[in-house]
Design goal:
The chain has no helices and ten strands. The chain is mostly beta strands. The protein has one domain: Jelly Rolls. The protein has a six-stranded antiparallel beta sheet with strand order 1-2-3-10-5-8, with no helix packed on it. A four-stranded antiparallel beta sheet has the order 4-9-6-7, with no helix packed on it.
Length: about 110
Amino acid sequence: MSEKGTCVRLDEISLQEVGGGVLKGDIVDSASCQITYIVQNEGAGHDFHEHDDLGEILILLEGHCLLGLGDSTRDIQGGSLVHAPRGVPHKVKYLTKSKVIRIKFPSRGQ
């Protein structure tokens, strides 16, 4: 990443296996934000959690997942964007192999 900005092709990102066949590649990792490209396997996901100090945006490029956001559950298809503000509980279960961009950023409020 450069202070002048970043431009990458997703197919050129070096992916590392992080367990369970899940692949991750950092696009940007700075104090102002973290952007990660993730290839999730069917059945991958995580339980409810929340972040006290940052917001999170999930861009589902391809695939299908169930997303818990606050007190609702949503069926999400590829081409969708989800915003989880700081302090809002969220969870995800990938129903198919999925390609995701995750953006985490410091958040002062909701």
